[in-house]
Amino acid sequence: MDQKILIVDYGSQYTQLIARKIRELKVFSIVCPYNKINLKYLKSVNPYGIILSGGPNSLLDKKSPKINKFIFNLNIPLLGICYGLQLICHLNGGKLKRSKTREYGHAKISIIKNSKLFTGYKKKNNQVWMSHGDSVDKIPVDFQITSISNNNIISSIENDNKKLYGLQFHPEVFHTINGKKIINNFLFKICRINNKFIIDDFLKNKINYLKRKLSNNKVICALSGGVDSTVTAYLLHKAIGNNLYCIFVDHGLLRKNESEEVSNSYKKKFKKNFYKINASKLFIKKLSKVSDPEKKRKIIGKTFIEVFEKESKRLKNINFLAQGTLYPDIIESIPYFGGPTAKIKSHHNVGGLPKKMNLKVIEPLKELFKDEVRILGKKLNISKSLLNRHPFPGPGLAIRIPGKINYHKIKLLQDVDEVFISYLKEKNIYYKIWQAFAILLPVKSVGVMGDQRTYKYCVSIRAVTSVDGMTADFYMFNKKDLSEISSRIINNIDGINRVLYDFTSKPPGTIEWE
Q1: What is the pTM of this model?
Q2: Which of 18, 176, 281, 446 has the most beta carbons within 10 angstroms of its beta carbon?
Q3: CATH topology for 406-501?
Q4: Which residues are designated catalytic?
């Protein structure tokens, strides 16, 4: 991880896609908000390259976020994307203009000057994704225009001598054809990175770090049975052995029979250091009158900590709480370094944690994406049955039951979920899907069954394909499968008379409903 890219965040919802694309090219990156960039920080990070992200602001406004101009004279390759390009232009003596209409969506660009950034690109009609209100009116001295859009917008500029490059479009999004090639050119042709991020190295370094960090301290691991907490537990066990205590909390919001399945799986591995806590009554009582999804998440996060702290006192001399937090969890909950990116939702083990805790939180996987965690799990010899399970949120069914929660709703949803997942496994569809689940809707509908009127709950089923959960697309079932799933749910579960299918990608939706 010595050869890294620094991404300076100006509040774009695409910032983390930049990090994702860089990681796909086996290069490590870190994200830092613009207002924490100074010479001391840059020396500590020692990046091989810097990327300035897009953002929602306008540099034509006096209070718009900027950066110290010294960053352009460090001889470190720098790429500005959208707002980042405009920042390069503005701070180096160029001029911007405010467009009458925002350019948003597909555009075509033509390359008008050879550039290392566009190595391998065709000259004309390259499809890119634009999302900006301002544009470059006059480029700075010693810069050159390298591409123009079909709307006659300056699409890229550069000062190759100073290693400064700017793109008005977003190469990190899927809609920019061959955008990954541009990022590849920046990393390897301009930044000259040659030491790639390798999971084997990450595993070795992380184990050594955990040994030093934790020393002889005892650690509780919040083990849910999901992939993230499983890999966290195995990794910690490799580092600190019997100083690890795995605690599985049954909060009453798990999938059907999951409590027993999880217990049986982990008793074998962690033996006497595995504990199961039945706290379902406590959680459901606290959630019984709550409808707001953010409040649900925070209540669940706080209650988890209460349970773990109680157990730590019983076990004695426990100082740390380990969680299977991943990079996307942190991204969606709060900006990784407190930057300007908008919060999407609190994850119970990130934004949902109480401010005051007796235990110190340790998150060994927080730099990784889900697909990397599965690769790490293989290196740790974790079984395929555990590694290939669909992701399941820490708050469980609480965020799949919009509105107030009760035992009846939980039982209904557990039954629906079991029918749905069983069908996917029976038809060998389960492993083609990233995540599949059902949502119990807070509405009832009129139906007819056996010549009689019914008035029962509706459910929506959701299935998505993804690599890391940062973006996702709905899985395209055929009509036969959807018909059979709907029929099985309605015929087998008393209380449901209507089944819907969620045709929403991420974005604009999130994978979970709450």
Answers
A1: 0.73
A2: 18
A3: GMP Synthetase; Chain A, domain 3 (3.30.300)
A4: 82, 170, 172
